[in-house]
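Section 3.1: Structural characterization of target chains.
Under the original work plan, the team committed to producing a structural model for every single-chain target entering the pipeline before any wet-lab resources were allocated. The record below documents one such target. The sequence was received from the expression subgroup and is listed exactly as submitted; it comprises 160 residues.
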Amino acid sequence: MTRYRWSRTSLPFAVWLLGAAAPGPLSSQIDPCTLLTRAQVATVLPNHDGGVVAHAGPALIQGVNAYQCSYADKEFNLLTVILNVAVDDKRFAEIRPGSTITDEKQVPVADGGWVRGDPNDMKLTAVKGRTVIDLELMAPGAGGKIAALVALANAVAGKL
């Protein structure tokens, strides 16, 4: 997971951006494991554990908040969902995905999405507003589940 620095001054905008209404620390406001349903995750990782929040809140880049949910099964296959949320355009410029990877393919997700990887490890990166969405599926046959990963990324983007 990429980690970023965070500042308390970013809290009001990030809370508004992600739709959290209650006051308090941002890390307690966003549960990244609720962005997808159990059935949605099962389309790429059947018999998963329901997800575990690996990170929610401050990141290493000031003005960026990070959220991660990791889903695993008994065979240790893994789906990771990561959101990096920038509070302004300047911070977003620091996390915006670049096009340095030559084997990536564009996919229809939100404001832009790209997929890359190999048969057992697929990565999807998408942008929605000032949020970077990363999904990684590490499981046998992951390369054949691109359409399902695109659907998951669109489901996440739809909740932002």
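The two ends are 20 Å apart (CA to CA).
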